Amino acid sequence: MMDPAGFSLAEQLWEGGGPFPNRNYNPVQLLFLSLPAEKATTLSRGSYGFSLEVAESNTILIESTSRVDALLKFETFRAALHVKYGFTDRLEIGLEIPYYHRNEGLLDPFIMSMEGAFRSRSLDRIRFTDGSFGGYTIRRDGEIILSGEDHQFGLGDLVFSGKYIVLAEGSGQPAVALRGAIKLPTGGF
Known about the structure:
This protein has helices at about 110-115, 125, and strands spanning about 50-65, 70-85, 90-105, 135-140, 145-150, 150-155, 160-165, 175-185. By secondary structure, it is mainly beta. It has one domain (about 30-185).
């Protein structure tokens, strides 16, 4: 739904079809640029698109090797504002602004009840049955290379993106687009 000025909060509530935008929220994976799947179409010239992505994820990792010891036990609330602009009818540019909050979380009781129902309890989760914040510490050769505490708030890395339609959709022919992005290390997460 567009107003006369070409400003839109959402073009349509549901267009049908896919792909379903899926993303891995593992904290190690979030260090790297990983774009969710999306359609090859772009916004029309002069149009804006806004979306808000919200996720709560629970992480437990306890690993030890001869050189590296890692303990990660926390929950992450992630909210990201996505802003897109139709630069031309074939070119769309975008910006993703993520915000993070790490804490002890609230998913442990639910996850433990599901694990119990399917009789597949995680031994690492049992170590933290009180839902406590284990924090995160990664040591290499005894030296701490990454650590964090409870209740951290902050912006994540900004992502600038662009998508260009190389081949427009036609009768019996899907659209083909090239997409690229740059992740800038602007955040503390």
